[in-house]
Amino acid sequence: MALLEELSTAAVAPNDRLPYWNGIAQMFAPIRVEALGDTPFEAHLYRRMLRDCELLSPSSSPARIYSGPDHEQAGVLNIQLQHRGRTTTHTGGRTALVEEGDFLLFDPTKPHWQTFEEHTQAIVVRVPLATVEERMPHLRGRVGIAMSGRSGAGALFSSFLRRAWEELEHDDAGEWIDGMSDAIWPLLDMAYAPARPALEPNRRDERRRALFEAVEAELTDPELDVHRLARRMGVSPRYVQMLFAELGTTPRAFIQNRRLELAARRLTREGGEVTVTDVAYDVGFNDLSSFCRAFRKRFETSPRNYRAGSRN
């Protein structure tokens, strides 16, 4: 069984690779890629949906990448580790040179750019923002700050993630790979421990955490909406909308994105043991065609093809 989905320019004529890759990139986010240097452009992207996060690994010849705000990804935070080469990044109002083994956080709802003058490979862990708020609510304040992967707790996190990815690349990963986050979170917490605020979370942080808990508690209920969330939290619908607006999204978009992520995990985990229709209704959609359209927009393929690809 192939553990990774692969996208590549390998089969594309050299002069067509950059336009082709920009088309691929636009499926994931509002990204623009510019090639650097005189050698033909080449790029690969590998990805794997796990139980409670998504792993991606893009690699590319020298390039400059610009990414605009992607509000459809408001429900996730990206942890990006430099696996090969080095990259200059700018995100969250901060610019950093990221060396091999180093890592930093990206908020996909914010614009950013990256430049690398040598062949590079990154490993990206896309984690639900609800989980971030539950486990490490201070983490969002560290967006754009490069963490060293060469010593201390940062090296433990970096070594674990790079080794886990190498296992995946060689199809050697066992069932443990779906539970990677069980190890990622304590290692990440240790790496960012010096940045942990000494003060208790303020009331807005507590409200935001309560909001995510409310969404997760009733995620699969088709009747879940802003009014339902407001009643569960004991606040006004306008206040709920304001909390989501601070995250750069709307209640409806956030709920739909979380349902689609849940559906993708079920299709990956259960494969042919579950029908697309059952998954659609189980995760909270009340219309199969709407689910399929939303799924295709989010994952660039149909639910049926996504399920088949995860089992090849």
Description:
The strands form 2 sheets. The chain has a 6-stranded antiparallel sheet with strand order 1-3-4-11-6-9, sandwiched between helices. The chain is built from 11 helices and 11 strands. The chain is of the alpha+beta class. The chain starts with a strand and ends with a helix. The mean pLDDT is 84. It has 2 domains: 5-195, Jelly Rolls; 203-309, Arc Repressor Mutant, subunit A (Orthogonal Bundle). The protein is 41% helix and 21% strand. It has helices at residues 17-28, 129-135, 152-169, 181-191, 203-217, 226-233, 237-246, 251-270, 276-282, 288-299, 303-309, and strands spanning 5-8, 31-35, 43-49, 54-60, 63-67, 76-84, 87-91, 94-98, 103-106, 112-116, 120-128.
Q: Find the structural class using helix and strand composition.
A: alpha+beta
Looking at this structure, what is the CATH superfamily of the largest domain? Jelly Rolls
CATH class of the largest domain: Mainly Beta
Radius of gyration: 20 Å
- Tell me, what's the shape? globular
The number of helical segments is 11
Biggest beta-sheet profile? 6 strands, antiparallel
Helix content: 40-55%
Q: Indicate the CATH architecture of the largest domain.
A: Sandwich
- What's the overall average pLDDT, rounded? 84
What distance lies between the first and last C-alpha atoms, to the nearest angstrom?
5 Å
Order of helical and strand elements? EHEEEEEEEEEEHHHHHHHHHH
How many extended strands?
11
In total, the number of domains comes to: 2
What fraction of residues sit in β-strands?
Answer: 15-25%
Report the uncertain regions. none
From the 3D structure, determine the CATH topology of the largest domain: Jelly Rolls
* Strand order in the sheet with the most strands: 1-3-4-11-6-9
